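Researcher: I'm preparing a figure for a lab meeting and need a structural model of a single chain. I don't have an experimental structure, so a prediction will have to do for now. The sequence is pasted below. Please return the structure as tokens so I can convert it later.
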Amino acid sequence: MARFIETLPGGRQHLIFQESFDGPLDDIPTTIVPPGHLYVMGDNRDNSDDSRVPVSSGGVGFLPISDLVGRVDVIVGSWNPAIAHWPAWDWLGGLRPSRFFIAVK
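Model: Understood. Here is the structure written out token by token.
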């Protein structure tokens, strides 16, 4: 897994990890979001069934604005779902305390 610093328009930078360089979600065509819809992106770019994946293929496609029920203000907690395959007594190891009670800007 490769580690990079990504720079967004406006200069904001953040750390990303790239699992592969030729995955099906790495190069997608330019997308036009239909009026009344949102384009949503998962937090795991290499493996998220977000707006890049149509509903017919198991993704969420474009989200109708009418389905939006609120906004995120804070991340209450975070747990690594990959540990669901671990023995139950090890599940506490999947908690990510650094991601608890984090304000979303």
